[in-house]
Amino acid sequence: MKSIWKIIIIIIIVLGLSFVGYSGYLAYHKWQQSQKSQDQLLIESLKANKGMIVEISTELAEIKKKVNSDTLKETIVIKEEAPTYESKKEELIELRKDPIINEEQIKVARIEFEDRINEFQASPDKILINMGDEKIILYEDINGNLVSLESGVTITRHRKVEDVINDLKAGQKVETIKKKDLGLKAGGYYDIGNKGYGLIVSKDIINIKDYSLNVSLLSDLKDLEGINLGANINYNISNSLELGAGITIDKDYYIALEYSF
Predict the structure, then answer these.
(1) Same-domain check for residues 68 and 10
(2) Cα(140)–Cα(171) distance, rounded to whole angstroms?
(3) How many domains does the chain fold into?
(4) Alpha-carbon span 228 to 196, nearest angstrom
(5) Would you say residue 218 lies in a domain?
(6) 34-37-42-43 Cα dihedral, nearest 10 degrees
(7) Which domain holds residue 75?
(8) Same domain, yes or no, for 77 and 127?
(9) Which of 155, 127, 137, 161 lies closest to 39, judged by CA?
(10) Is 171 inside a domain boundary?
(11) CA 233, CA 93: separation in Å to the nearest integer?
(12) CB-based contacts of 106, cutoff 8 Å, min separation 6
């Protein structure tokens, strides 16, 4: 009867650890999804719906994005009335002809003009196009869209979809977040003092690089009376395989080989 209760306790503990670990994974996955940029979610949607056109309207431009095979085609039309760098510059020149009457308008126009300057300076990618006596300067806005310093310009850009996902903004490194495991481990252990062996189930509580501190449930294969609790420090030796050493509440030392999932 006592052995049956121990088995029930083991099942409850394992289920509890599984629930806690899975709940943590779901919470992390939800957080990770919330960290995705608007552009990344858009491109993933486009990949799943090839041929679909997505239209975006920004302060400066009307943008169409379409996936053809593995290429993303972006058509950006800078609005004629857009508050671009050049348009705000010309507006300020005109307003300053009568600074007293236009004092308030000058303040507003200057703020917008400075916003364009800051946006241009912050751009990771700037392109100068020479066309004889004319020059067109392109740059990326804060959302990674290619725009111009002037109004009335149409820009067409082709990019590989995979490049857009892995590197949403030119010149910006995008780090890949490693998928978090459930923190549950299972394997075998060897009791150094009693020269016994059995099964071990663990749940990590602290992770530092390749090391982890775990709480563990140990069961002697020879006798269910040998069920014990312990704590061990593991080292990730290869992928999800961990080697560790620990001590039980009865002060017995053991080594363990566990698989993390």
Answers:
(1) no
(2) 11
(3) 2
(4) 13
(5) yes
(6) -120
(7) 38-166
(8) yes
(9) 161
(10) no
(11) 70
(12) 92, 95, 96, 99
**Residues 230, 184 share a domain:** yes
The rounded distance, in Å, linking the Cα atoms of 254 and 211 is: 17
Q: For residues 147 and 62, state if they share a domain.
A: yes
Q: Identify the domain boundary among 166, 197, 216.
A: 166
Pairwise CA distance, residues 20 & 202, whole Å: 13
The tokens describing 217, both together, are 């449930």
Q: Count the Cβ atoms, other than its own, within 10 Å of residue 158.
A: 9
Q: In the chain, what are the helix, strand and coil shares in percent, each to the nearest 5?
A: 30, 40, 30
pLDDT tens for each residue of 69-121: 677 788 999 999 889 999 999 999 999 999 899 999 999 999 999 999 999 99
Longest dimension (CA), the chain: 98
Kindly state the helix (H) or strand (E) to which residue 254 belongs, with its residue range.
strand 253-260
Domain end (from 166, 193, 210): 166
Contact 158, 232 (CB under 8 A): no
Q: Is the pLDDT of residue 239 over 80?
A: no
Secondary structure, 3-state, 18-46: HHHHHHHHHHHHHHHHHCCCHHHHHHHHH
Tens of pLDDT, residue by residue over 182-206, are 678 999 998 888 888 888 999 998 8
Is residue 144 within 8 A of residue 63, CB to CB? The reply is no
Six-digit token string for 139: 């740059």
* Angle separating helix axes 85-95 and 103-122, nearest 10 degrees: 160
